[in-house]
Amino acid sequence: MATQRKADFPCTDEEWKLRQDLAACYRIFDHLGWGESIYNHISVKIPGEDDTFLINPFGLMYDEVTASNLVKIDVEGNNVGPSQYPVNKAGFTQHGYFHKHLGDRAAAICHVHTTATMAVCSHKGGLLPTNFYACNFQGQIGYHDFEGVTVRAEEGERLVENLGQHSILMLRNHGPVVMDKTIPGMFVKMWALQRACEIQVATLGMGDPLFVPDEVVAVHQRDLHVVGEQGGPAGAFDFEAWKRRIDKIDTSWRN
Asked: What would the pLDDT profile of 184-222 be if each residue is shown by its tens digit?
């Protein structure tokens, strides 16, 4: 099910498809309880354009985001599209720096403040190898010490340095930044990270956790890679399934 864009909406067919997928992602996040009032962000770089990306309109809840009201913005925070909505500076400062300096590996980015992920970011040990999902990410996460609200461009250098070659950056005492080449890839990574953190919080609440040995983590990650190769592009099936779920609730995100 695809909604034809308005004939006078100023974008390419490729951008419109991207707008629909990003709007769907906001609705999925809302459905899963990952929203944070009008705050936090999911953004995606527009292919074929220099340093432009789509992000949520500041002032709207996630369940109000649609394909046409997403804001097209450059890495300096300038609105370069048809939307008249403003953008939260804390969103484009961080996201813009990643989009500009990391290329396709950070084409799609989300930053959330879910209770479970913030709790793990605020725990001295970070994400621990205590459950199936947490084992997915061992050795594949960067950590960045809290410096306050992310509105200063100069912090971007340290963010990228602490990310390294990873695709997840846990902002200590704050929340995670998750990125990928595609929206579905970013989504499924965020879903697994959320589950890992939820289970860790529950496990630590019971007392002494049982840690998975490094050699077992290595086997786990090796076999996950093999399974992933057989399932098509990362997150593709997951994302389409969740789009069908939110379509049953409300299809207005497509407009």
From this structure: 999 999 999 999 999 999 999 999 999 999 999 999 999
Q: Where are the alpha helices (DSSP H) in the chain?
A: 13-31, 89-102, 115-121, 132-137, 155-163, 183-204, 214-230, 236-249
Radius of gyration over alpha carbons of the chain, in Å?
Answer: 18
Record the tokens describing residue 101, joined without a space.
Answer: 């300096």
* Placement of tokens 């974008």 in the chain: 11
Q: Distance (Å, rounded) from C-alpha 232 to C-alpha 58?
A: 34
Q: How many of the other CB atoms lie within 10 Å of CB of 133?
A: 18
Which structure tokens are listed for 107? 């084409």
In angstroms, the CA 82 to CA 66 distance is 13
pLDDT in tens, 108-127: 999 999 999 999 999 999 99
pTM given for the model: 0.94
For residue 142, list its beta bridge partners.
169
